[in-house]
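Chain and backbone:
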Amino acid sequence: MMCGNGQRPARAGAGLAALLSWVVGTALQLAQPRLWPLAAYGVLVIASGVATAVVVLRLRSCSLSGVWLALAVALLAFGQVGFRAAAFQAQGLAPALEGRDLLVTGVVATMPQRSANGLRMQMDIDSAYADGLEVRLPPRIQLGWYQAFGGLDDEPDAIGNLPAVWAGERWRMVVRLKAPHGNANPHGFDYELWLWEQGVQATGYVRQGTRQPQPQRLEQTGRHPVAWMRQATRQRIDARLPQSEQAGWISALVTGDQNAIDQADWDVFRATGVAHLMSISGLHITMFAWAAAAVVGMAWRRSGRCCLWLPAPHAALLGGVALAGCYALFSGWGVPAQRTVGMLAVVCLLRVSGRSWPWPMVWLLIGVAVLLVDPWALLQAGFWLSFVAVGVLFASGTASPSAGPSRWLQALRAMAREQAIITLALTPLVLLLFGQVSLVGFVANLFAIPWVTLLITPLAMAGVILPWAWDLAAWAIALLAALLNGLAQLPFATVSVAAAPTWMGVAGVLGGLVLAVRLPPALRLAGLALALPVGLWQPPRPPMGQFDLLAADVGQGNAVLVRTAHHALLYDAGPRYSRDSDAGHRVLLPLLRALGVQLDLLVLSHRDSDHVGGAQAVLAMAPHADLLASIEPEHGLWSLRAGRRCAAGQSWAWDGVEFSILHPQAQDYDKGQRPNALSCVLRIRSPPQPGQTGAVALLVGDIEAAQENRLVAQGAMLKADVLLVPHHGSKTSSSAEFLDAVAPQWALVQSGYRNRFGHPALAPMMRYAERGISVLRSPSCGAIAWRSDDPGSLACHRSTHGRYWQHVSDDQGGF
């Protein structure tokens, strides 16, 4: 491109525009709800690639070429991401193979993850057979191997009797698979996207029983040697530190096994803002690269021949980046590690080549390098946190400490300044992404960052060669844990805010950047004005006399959030997924936090674990909420919160909305009935408005036909606009008489995808269809939203927020 005296600035501007366009093109493709045909993306890639080459080589007008270059690059990025996505999607699991026993042979591709319930691993498939006929499976699947079906075994050691499974081993086993399917909730974790990024296109479990061949280890293939070495190292750590609470921390820092850290410890990390230190983050990789570069430089200078071939500073840079890449690979090659290695490689190559690029170009080039490897990283919170943090440090400028006796003092001041700048700039982004920020994070990180990066991590890594170093690392971790636990217990440790709209969040992030960059005070005040609304945002609530209802997608269980103008209740708290995971921690707490909900009442319909599994976590988050339940007096939840048992006749009003309990009768508790029969039935009614009748929702738990018919015979006020389908649509519920009495327009089924109970059953669903009742099911709908001031419409989260990597469910049971 010939542009006279302005040639170099114009080229720099065109390069900056091209890098930014690549990010924009990638983002536009990720926003597609459905993919185009593979051929369409192929044509787009070829056409945009040719256009990019033509613009670069032939166009002479700098201003015009910059515009066309940006457009061509954006289309090229859009096309290549779409092509990769369509090609990957074409390898998915055939629906006809879901829920069937398959005899597979494959190689364990990752370090097996241990939990209280068993093992979880990924497997590369060699061959698969269904009923003796060979079938095609996706190249990689994820399996759970449990001691008991479903992974909810109550034995104290569910994993103890399972065979040792090592990365690289070839196994033959019978498995049962389904398409990747996760919960879909507002502001929730996108499990299907996570599996997509892992290259996994089917999940399932190992089948064991008298009718199936037992799993058989065939050989150690030697494939996936890095995963094998990571597993061997983790085993050595456990052997060196048996029964030690610190062993999991060390495993996470050395091998990247974050599952080795207890959930309670992760809660402390988040409350104190140091969670980034307990994963293989950019900080760890950078510190490792710095130390490795120092060692390589010292060794290189000892050889004159080597210095003549390549200057020692260049050798130190290249060696540091190479060894940091090896460390990142050994630790699991997570996205933060990939970003950091890419950043270090870019900076290293620029320095070795003698080039000096403006920091915005270096910053964007780092982002593009990451997106070339993993375009879907653009949707990860970790990408934005690290990417923005690097940009802030670039923009704010950090002076290197000068030599002399005060050098260490200058270094400490510089570190404190950098931490303050990053904390200030990232606070709006953290609030936008997580709805929670640590107020003690600055203090915690001032101690934790040097303690972890300069002491704990080096000791943990040294333990690979000198095992006694792990003992010292455990001592250092115990000291850090005591400090973090003390900070986390402070009443002001964290602050939570509701999730702001995207446009407001973007403005807040820009405000944080303006506050962090060296600008005149007047401009910094403008940044404060942009950032403040994120922390002060309050989501809209129903008007007086109205209520809304959100049936959360919790899998096989019930959890319904009901809000009025100034109050909120949660009807049931979802299931317990395993002994270390439940719907409270995984779904409900993030949802309530993002919606800015302060619960006034938790209603637990009955004692079954798919209804009370997340109750403990919910009660811990809502210290002022009352408890209303049908659980027995000796149940452990009563020790967490005083409350009362539900009984017909109880009623109250919130903001003009009427709430009443229709079942059970007080005397039913003395009859020794099954928990399902004692389910609390809650009726919610908004008062009639001019020209409208009051809208009604009926939440019935797991009552069955006997309780339904009893309610009908008693003449209970059952007519409703929306009904929570009894017992998840089991064949023992939803009797014809009950449906005629309720006559709902909408019926909501909360059940798990391909659940083992077969919910909802065909017979009751036919009764709904015969009456023209619209049935919505959480596997195909995700979270379901309904409002009393618009009773004729419903919103499915999977429809309003659909993306192409999300599974389209046919909602068949019997997994």
